[in-house]
Amino acid sequence: xxxxxxxxxxxxxxxxxxxxxxxxxxxxxxxxxxxxxxxxxxxxxxxxxxxxxxxxxxxxxxxxxxxxxxxxxxxxxxxxxxxxxxxxxxxxxxxxxxxxxxxxxxxxxxxxxxxxxxxxxxxxxxxxxxxxxxxxxxxxxxxxxxxxxxxxxxxxxxxxxxxxxxxxx
Length: 169
Ligand SMILES: C[S@@+](CC[C@H](N)C(=O)[O-])C[C@H]1O[C@@H](n2cnc3c(N)ncnc32)[C@H](O)[C@@H]1O
Description:
Blueprint: H1 14-22, E1 26-32, H2 38-45, E2 49-55, H3 59-71, E3 78-81, E4 96-102, H4 104-111, E5 121-126, H5 131-134, H6 138-143, H7 147-165
Parallel strand pairs: 1-2, 1-4, 2-3, 4-5
The structure holds S-adenosylmethionine (SAM).
């Protein structure tokens, strides 16, 4: 059997590849609800991100992610966190915060936590389970009649547009 290199980059599916492409080249990014940690591993390996906060409330997920980082000798560039949602930032200023692979309602709850993301770029990707959950734009949530989520997503879109217009990093 052909030996498998322990340092081979974990394969990303199309969804995670798309998210990875949106992450800016930066010093610190946070992967909230990282599960297996493949996205963070990829971002660190490719040099797109220097250090990652990798969080998951599940011990099993953190164990999987830790194993992956150890195999890839990346533990010195990772802070693993068991905190709920954005609390994983713990006062640190991340350049990008990734919240992916969760349902829209959970993403919205996390975004409503009383945590200052200090201008970090927010990258959101809901889990595509069925159309309502996959709806992650303000307009989409309005169409399915959820005004709370529509408002949350509209605020994020407005803030990100304003930061883009102002030329913020
Ligand atoms: C379906 S996985 C998505 C993994 C990865 N982000 C992706 O997009 O492939 C969702 C993960 O979020 C974690 N999770 C759920 N609620 C969370 C919370 N409030 N804070 C941190 N992690 C959470 C779960 O334990 C699970 O591992």
